[in-house]
Amino acid sequence: MVIGIIVILIGLLLPALGRASSKARRTQTQTTLNEFMKSCEAFYQEFGFYPGVVSDEELAENPMMSGTQNALLHLMGGAMRRSDVTDAVWNDFQSNSAGAAAQVVSFSSGDVAFRPDLIGRGPFLRGKQYPPFYNPKENELKLDLDSSGNTFLVDQGSIEVGGNALPLRQALPTLLDAWDAPVLYARQIRTTGPLVCPTTVSNYRPQFSAEVFSTVTGYNSLGERGGRQETLSIIHPDGPNTGIPYYPAHIAQYIRSPTLGPWDSTNPTENSALGGVPRGSILIWSAGEDNIFLSKHDGPGSPGDPQDNLFEEQYFNPKVTDEYDDVIVFGGS
Length: 333
Known about the structure:
Blueprint: H1 2-47, H2 56-61, H3 67-76, E1 79-81, H4 87-94, E2 103-107, E3 110-114, E4 124-125, E5 128-129, E6 141-143, E7 159-161, E8 164-166, H5 168-171, E9 173-175, E10 184-187, E11 196-197, E12 208-209, H6 210-217, E13 221-222, E14 227-228, H7 229-232, H8 246-255, E15 282-286, E16 327-331
Parallel strand pairs: 11-12
Antiparallel strand pairs: 1-3, 2-3, 4-5, 6-9, 7-8, 10-15, 13-14, 15-16
């Protein structure tokens, strides 16, 4: 009898404990994203632009790291643009204690030197060494040693870490949510044009670069659950909605300002979904508990009734995005 009562109590308590843990992790993730956003806003107040050592257009052409890693290098140091500094500062930055040169990568606007060992010192900008704008808590940063099958990222350069030569994307830390999955940072390039499209196609001229989103949404699996991005994410570039404008238009659905109300709901299409204005000029985005960015089993969908098309009339409204377990924070005007 006693054993039976204990079993019943355990059966009642375990789901409650699971819900409490889930809520705590979501709160922790929200806090992480908010603190990162505060750092980005402080950076903007100081310099008049949002962090990212490499421009989004150049990162789209050469995606050798994620958009989030790009921002961390500006917030915490560890990279320097040749055009920003004098010869003396540039030469000094390239020399480390072991006498080895920094990794220099050439972009269309000039060279960028990378020193992962200096992340945490703070950025050197406008002739001045600044303290770091972002100070992560324990376990919020880690090296992305396998990139979890993100074939969108490319290997560039070589940095020695723990006796192993790693490409830059694996030698640079990335920001994690409470489910041990990389989070996404993106910033607005311009205030006109389609909300999200590839910047490598010259005639699109989008507000946000689809390629920068893909540096994180392009992972095939994420986090402690190994969320099956390529199979289930409606915004994976090679997932259920591969191709233009399909996966960018689903991103646009999620980041568009809800103040505009439904968008041409009498004729909802992937192209009309690209119109509008974003909820902010920068964003920090976590895939949430399922470790999948906008899973077709989440939101209006379920495992028994997956939804990978938000361009149908019943979904073409600002409220549909509230149903996903993803966590997102917007900043800027």
